[in-house]
Amino acid sequence: MVVVLDLRKGEPDRLGARVLVVADTERLAAGQRVLQDVFSSRLVRAVLVVAVGPQLRLAPALDGERRRVLWVGDPRGILWDADTGEAALGPEVSSEAILIDLLSQEEVFDEVVAGLGDIPYGTASPGWRIVAGRIDPEVLSQAFREVSERFHGPAQQDTATFSSPLATALPVLSGTVDLPADLLDALVPDGPLDRMHRRAAEQIDRAARALEELSYFSPAPARAAIAGEVIAAGKALAEFRDTVARLFADVDHSDEGAKETLAAHGVKFATPAGMGVTEIVAEMRADVESALAERRSLTRLVSRLRLLADHSAPIGSAAFVADLWRICPDELLNALHAPADFPATLLDRFVFWRHSRAWWREQLSLGPARTALDELRSRLERVAASEWMLGQARTHTSDAARTLAAALNDACGQVAGTLMDWSRAEAGQAAAGPALDEEVTVRLRDRGGQLREVITGDLLDAVTGWLEPGWTALEHGDYRDVQAGLDRRIDETLRQYRYHLAHRGVQERPDFGTGDAGRQELVDAVWRQSQQVVRALRAQPGGQMLQLCGDRDLAVLLRQASAVRFAPRAVRGQGNPPGVVWTRSGQYAGTLRLVPLRPGTVEENWSGDGT
User: Fold this and answer.
1) What are the backbone dihedrals phi and psi of residue 216, each rounded to the nearest 5 degrees, phi first?
2) Looking at residue 425, what DSSP letter applies?
3) How far apart are CA 308 and CA 173, in angstroms?
4) Mean pLDDT of all residues in 175-191
5) Which among 76, 89, 422, 500 counts the fewest CB atoms within 10 Å?
6) Rg (CA), the chain
């Protein structure tokens, strides 16, 4: 990092390994004490001074081998061909800010410092031919606005299912797939409910067999015995239904006392393998990060998580009590408790024997009774699996998904608001200055769609980092901690990204980025196809460039120059001249010319007070 110290604005509040000092030539000598402090600091490894103004006067601190000075006689500059001496008016706008921005790049700073070391007195006048890579403010403003709308647009319904081949818990808990067969075997063999079910089944079967054995010649006691068997079957069925209903109402949710109650009734109660908190959070994280990596809409992801929260939330076993009465209604039990009499007329029995027995079988309702018994057990086992065995897993999944959806929704709002602030700020900025070639900027104007995709992709990558601490909190069930510090992390990342876009450009991936979502295509279309970039990188030091001095200053410059060539490292490829300094910044590409001053030009002020 290059620390910029502008002596016109005050003394430094911090120092670093590289210090860029900016001062007016009239007051540079007065900065002797500050410069001595800078040079004596153990933090500082290199110092580069930019002196702006006519008649260069240096402080004693800049004497000797430590001197590395760029003299900007006139920041508006003049077009000058060093080989022929021909000069013409420049753009008539100050280029000081561009020079400082350029020298704030570590790679360019180091190369200029090294280049000045080979120039007599370590002092030179800078000139350049540079292509600007800055995005047009109106284009960038529009991109920020459109990305903002993506992050906090209208809610979109997501009907996608959690059916990843690697997921086992979420598909079950969300209802995407049916409950595993092993979970449906919920009754302990020979446990109370299992025995109760078995007794009812045996009683119904015994009554059905007795009915099948009934013949025309069977005496009245035989028919009475069948009625007794039917009544006993009805009592056993009623007992099973009512016991299950009481259990549904008493346990309801898998609370602390549920385990003992269920164990007393012979119902299995254990969290199935692969359905623990760790597995659930891991699957949820994999699904979310996969969606982010695939650049899916965050509003759809929020909707998807809310849907998961709704579908996985436990209902409670009490909600299924009414189903038991539907499966086994009182009318069925009444028919079993007071069985109809067999037709009494002998003629009817003789003539219509088979019809009479069929009629009686239907009235006794043994078939519906057996069907009801089997359905009662099936409902018991499904409720036991869904609401008791998976109760805690459902609760955690629902709470985690809802908490995560809220965190992402808040993040969307925060990002969208910041992007709108950026959009308004960019809308008021001026376009690239006339001191630079603008071909890249012009090319970027036609790439608004690609620009939007790259920025969207970068911010979706950032979401992955923002959620990182929240996953641990979810594993521990600390739902309130999921959003702890989230707004601060978002603000810090957005601040860094804003700086990144301003100083490194869109073609350089940010530190938090993981993908390139169209970035390379944008670089190829904008930078590598630019003829101006090629010409700027191959510009000869003696040719025409914008020299940052006045027309009178040309007399003190030697007609010899060295060059520092630089370009964004994303542009690196075939056809580039040797010796190019590849920078992380994406704002500039071209050649910086260093022109030495004639001997005796620099006036050294030894008074230390600027007089």
Assistant:
1) -60, -30
2) H
3) 8
4) 86
5) 89
6) 42
Helix (H, G, I), strand (E, B) or coil at 80: strand
Could you say which DSSP state residue 572 is in?
-
Instruction: Measure the CA–CA gap between 598 and 294, rounded to whole angstroms.
Output: 60
| Helix pair angle (258-265, 192-213), 10° resolution | 30
Tokens for 606, please give them. 């030894």
In tens, the pLDDT along 210-241 reads: 888 777 656 778 878 888 998 999 999 999 99
Structure tokens at 508: 């350089």
CA 605 vs. chain centroid, Å, equals: 57
SS3 of residue 411 by DSSP: helix
pLDDT band of residue 255 (cuts 50, 70, 90) is low
Task: Name residue 289's amino acid.
Answer: E
Instruction: Return d(Cα 388, Cα 184) in angstroms, integer.
Output: 12
d(CA 555, CA 567): 31
Half-sphere exposure (CA, 13 Å, Cβ side) for 345? 5
Structure tokens that stand for 387 in this block: 């609401």
- Pairwise CA distance, residues 56 & 601, whole Å: 8
Range in 23-27, 43-47, 157-161, 353-357 with the lowest mean pLDDT: 157-161
The residue assigned the tokens 């995709």 is 453
CB 237 within 8 A of CB 373: yes
User: What confidence tier does 609 reach under pLDDT thresholds 50, 70, 90?
Assistant: very low
Supply angle C-alpha 89, 92, 97, rounded to 5.
125
Residue type, 308: L
The Cα 354–Cα 350 span in angstroms is 9
- Helix ranges restricted to H, 7-66: 25-28, 32-40
**Closest by Cα among 196, 235, 199, 200 to 336:** 235
Neighbouring-strand partners of residue 132: 588
Cα–Cα distance measured from residue 89 to residue 79, given in angstroms and rounded to the nearest whole number: 6
